[in-house]
From TrEMBL:
Native organism: Lupinus angustifolius (Narrow-leaved blue lupine)
EC number: 2.7.11.1
Apple domain residues: 351-431
Membrane-spanning intervals of the chain: 450-471
Main EC class the enzyme belongs to: transferase
Similarity comment: family membership: Belongs to the protein kinase superfamily. Ser/Thr protein kinase family.
Domain Bulb-type lectin: 29-155
Signal peptide as annotated in the record: 1-28
Domain of life according to the entry: Eukaryota
This protein's name: Receptor-like serine/threonine-protein kinase
Length: 854
């Protein structure tokens, strides 16, 4: 069985039941008057019982006044009053100050250890009949008893957020009073609420944006608000039926906020100490906080990843590209995939004759130093930029209603990224010769040159258009074939911000965001014992590397799969932590989903969602069942596995080598969507590591690449090898190991290759598929399979090329060389007419080469 992951914090969460709440006696109401006080064993509760105010401690030696959701079991603290000045023992209390205009926290020796007025800009007037009230919004307010108008409140906790933005809270500036509100992480999640290093702060200069800071370093920026969403969050849906995002700008106030129309939905924006901004929503049915959205998501979200005039594109290789008309400043570093030096102009600007080049679908560059005029249109904007020689680019501010407003950049363009869809357009100033088509301009006759440019340009446009349409058409294929599991990186991002409101109804489309349960629930050992019928033999699903897997049914009816790690599995607590960390962090619809863990004494268990159709090998290699896999089904399984693996290798924030990819580790859900499982052997590579060596070769014969089996060297390319084997198995319905053709000299790989070079590749196809299949699709898959199992790792494509080749009939594909481990290894070298390798399979290089069987 597979597993999934997250991080230490999540792991710790499993154990964070140490939290002590003395809150047994609720002061009957939601209010505290000047004559009352709140001791550490008392709480206030909001009128409808949504939030609770009280004290908590993790250690007995530090006590904090805080607000949390009253009815959520794992107390989720959303606000802490005295985060940096805890009470040292539980004998303190909270009361309204003597003048009635602040609240104070008093310790055992009657010293004031915290007061709301240390934060407020002095409210000196004294008030007689003030009350402290906890509202159902989670706002704790100090006000005159009959005053309900928010601007008249004497003090409110919403003005002093901790690490959480609740609906109705504002993140930003009141420009009249100079008051700023931002959120700052805890020092240690679920352990230490004191101010941590991470904060999310709005900068109102230029065109306002929100920045995630780690101490004094920016690590991520939202991009400016474009009327619908943040420029850097294309997946943000302007109209969700439950969460409404608000970005307000006027001369008095600049803030970001959100509101929830459906009262029963809990959603919060939270900055976690690990450097992630997370929007979490509470899922009632499973009682977990679900990660609805988070950032930064990938390397292109890292601030200034590609330096000035660089543009980061996760679908490109390398991810850093220069804006048209620019080239890398430091080619050597650039080649080494180090992009932060950025790019420089090919040709200096001339000012007068400069032109603008339009970039589509980008995250606008940093807007702190820009000039803004909200009433100008795009034409006026171009004019303004053109007139000022230091203007480097311009764009509309808002994208709604066809676009409006004008923003112009003076100086470098920083932190841009390319989106497949959903970004914004920006017009970048270039020397005229860098804009046009006829770059090679050393002609003698200028008229001829111009004519040449026009004709050449037109031809190029037509050609480009043709290619684009072709590409687009083909690009759609794999995606459409995948039916419900349509996704490339562009689809994914859209799913993230989809509202999870009708909780179950949206599951199909956005299963990915359902996977994001960061807060891993800890299952009780007894619950699991009951669910699995005391680990009965009858419930056994299989035996994996590190233990036995059981099927279980929770009392609520949810089906689960439980991996019970054998005590002598060799998987110690460290490896277990590893797996849990890894699994929780991985979120992809083609990876199996971890629901929780359970730990009791030396019993360690992982709880996964149950996959109705079990594993691929159970169907593929079973005579009676394999006919249920028609070609479309198989193709979508191949595409799904490829995407899952691409995610592991490249898109997730780690580089993960699975090391044991095989048919039995591919699980199939109700709709036969594949999910990669079993990460017990997976390895995380640090950023630049490309291969590693292991003394202990783990994995499964038949799927292991030669360099791994023989020398213990593994890299993404060893996974690619296993993937290739899997593809050929899926097409042929035969196991690589145990399949021998004719004189028993060939295994499946050797046999497939032989058929391929003899031009009989279609004979490989499993007869139970029938006649309903696209020949070119099958051939393309066989070619991909063969490319993946080539003997030399460096010949094998990367998973991103594989995904591209699978989804496009027009991608350039090399002719496969001989596979590794096919026996007959030195049979004639293929005439590798096309020696294009991995990197050339980018969209730019798409050409029209229809594949033919040879
Ligand atoms: C806190 O104090 C209680 C009793 O006062 C004790 O039982 C508990 O073990 C203490 N917890 C910690 C974490 O020290
Ligand atoms: C609550 O705490 C106060 C002082 O801290 C103490 O006097 C009182 O007895 C406590 N009440 C209960 C029910 O524990
Ligand atoms: C208020 O702030 C001052 C310094 O700004 C500090 O000396 C004092 O201890 C603080 N008082 C409280 C109650 O936190
Ligand atoms: C913005 O543009 C409009 C229209 O061109 C102009 O009338 C106005 O003065 C500009 N505002 C500023 C602050 O420059
Ligand atoms: C261009 O804009 C910058 C920034 O506002 C300004 O300092 C500079 O004077 C302007 N130059 C011209 C020629 O208008």
């Amino acid at each position: 069985m597979g597993c999934v992951t997250s991080l230490l914090n999540t792991f710790l969460f499993c154990f964070s039941t140490l939290l002590i709440f003395l809150s047994t006696i609720s002061i009957s109401t939601d209010t505290l008057t000047t004559t009352q006080s709140l001791t550490t064993n008392q709480t206030l509760s909001s009128p409808q019982g949504i939030f609770e105010l009280g004290f908590f401690s993790y250690t007995n030696s530090t006590w904090y006044l805080a607000i949390w959701y009253k009815n959520i079991d794992h107390k989720t603290v959303v606000w802490v009053a005295n985060r940096d000045t805890p009470l040292e023992n539980p004998t303190g209390f909270l009361k309204i100050g003597d003048k009635g205009n602040n609240i104070v926290l008093i310790d055992q020796s009657l010293h004031q250890i915290w007061s709301s007025s240390n934060q407020t800009t002095t409210t000196t007037t004294s008030t007689r009949n003030s009350i402290l009230q906890l509202l159902d919004s989670g706002n704790l307010v100090l006000k005159e008893s009959n005053e309900n108008y928010p601007t008249k409140f004497l003090w409110q906790s919403f003005d002093y957020p901790t690490d959480t933005l609740l609906p109705g809270m504002k993140l930003g500036w009141n420009l009249d009073t100079g008051m700023e509100r931002h959120i700052t992480s805890w020092k240690i999640k679920d352990k230490d609420p004191s101010s941590g290093d991470l904060s999310f702060k709005l900068n109102y200069h230029g065109l306002p944006e929100i920045f995630l800071w780690n101490k004094d370093q920016i690590i991520y920026r939202s991009g400016p608000w474009n009327g619908e969403r943040f420029s850097g969050v294309p997946e943000m849906q302007p109209t969700t039926n439950s969460i409404k995002f608000i970005f307000h700008v006027d001369e008095h106030e600049v803030y970001y906020s959100f509101s929830i129309e459906n009262q029963i939905l809990f959603s919060r924006l939270f900055v976690s100490p690990i450097g992630e901004l997370q929007r979490l929503t509470w899922i009632k049915t499973t009682q977990v906080w679900n990660k609805f959205w988070y950032a930064p998501k990938d390397q292109c979200d890292d601030y200034r990843m590609c330096g000035p005039y660089g543009i980061c594109d996760t679908n490109a290789s390398p991810v850093c590209q220069c804006v048209k008309g620019f080239h890398p400043k430091n080619q050597q570093n650039w080649n080494l995939r180090y992009g932060s030096d950025g790019c420089v102009r090919n040709k200096e600007l001339d000012c007068e004759s400069d032109k603008f080049f339009k970039l589509h679908n980008v995250k606008l560059p940093e807007t702190t130093l820009v000039l803004v005029n909200r009433s100008m249109n795009l034409v006026e904007c171009e004019d303004l930029c053109h007139k000022n020689c230091s203007c480097t680019a311009y764009a509309n501010i808002e994208i709604t209603n066809g676009g409006s407003g004008c923003v112009i950049w003076i100086g470098e363009l920083i932190d841009m990224r390319q989106y497949p869809a959903g970004g914004q357009d920006i017009y970048v100033r270039l020397a005229a010769s860098d804009v046009g088509f006829g770059g090679g301009s050393n002609g003698t006759n200028s008229t001829a040159k111009v004519a040449g440019i026009i004709v050449g340009g037109a031809a190029l446009i037509l050609l480009a258009l043709g290619f684009f349409l072709l590409w687009k058409k083909n690009k759609l294929q794999c995606i459409l074939k995948g039916k419900t599991e349509h996704r490339g990186s562009l689809e994914r991002s859209h799913e993230f911000l989809m509202p999870e409101v009708g909780f179950s109804s949206k599951r199909e489309q956005s299963s990915e965001s359902n996977i994001d349960d960061l807060e891993l629930p800890l299952f009780d050992f007894n619950t699991i014992t009951i669910a699995t019928n005391n680990f009965s033999e009858h419930n056994k699903l299989g035996q994996g590397g590190f233990g036995v897997v059981y099927k279980g049914i929770l009392i609520e009816g949810q089906e689960i799969a439980v991996k019970r790690l054998s005590k002598n599995s060799g998987q110690g607590i460290e490896e277990f932590k590893n797996e849990v960390k890894l699994l929780v962090k991985l979120q992809h619809r083609n990876l199996v989903r971890l629901l929780g863990c359970s730990i009791q004494m030396d019993e360690k268990m992982l709880v996964y969602e149950y996959m109705e159709n079990r594993s691929l090998d159970g169907i593929l290699f079973d005579k009676s069942k394999r006919s249920s896999l028609d070609w479309n089904r198989r193709f979508s399984i191949i595409c799904g596995i490829a995407r899952g693996l691409l995610y592991l290798h490249q898109d997730s924030r780690f580089r993960i080598i699975h090391r044991d990819l095989k048919a039995s580790n591919i699980l199939l859900d109700k709709e036969m969507n594949p999910r990669i499982s079993d990460f017990g052997m997976a390895r995380i590579f640090v950023a630049d590591q490309t291969e590693a060596n292991t003394m202990r070769v783990v994995g499964t014969y038949g799927y292991m690449s030669p360099e791994y089996a023989m020398d213990g060297i593994f890299s993404v390319k060893s996974d690619v090898f296993s993937f290739g084997v899997l593809v050929l198995e899926i097409i042929s319905g035969k196991k690589n190991r145990g399949f021998y053709y004719a004189n028993k000299e060939w295994n499946l790989l050797g046999h497939s290759w032989k058929q391929w070079i003899e031009g009989n590749a279609l004979e490989l196809i499993d007869s139970s598929i029938g006649d309903l299949y696209s020949q070119s699709e099958v051939l393309r898959c066989i070619q991909v399979g063969l490319l993946c199992v080539q003997e030399h790792a460096e010949d094998r494509p990367t998973m991103s090329s594989v995904v591209l080749m699978l989804s496009s009939e027009t991608a350039v594909m090399a002719q496969p060389k001989n596979p590794g481990f096919c026996l007959g290894r030195n049979l004639a070298e293929t005439d590798s007419s096309s020696s294009k390798q991995d990197e050339s399979f980018t969209v730019n290089h798409v050409t029209v080469t229809m594949l033919e069987a040879r």
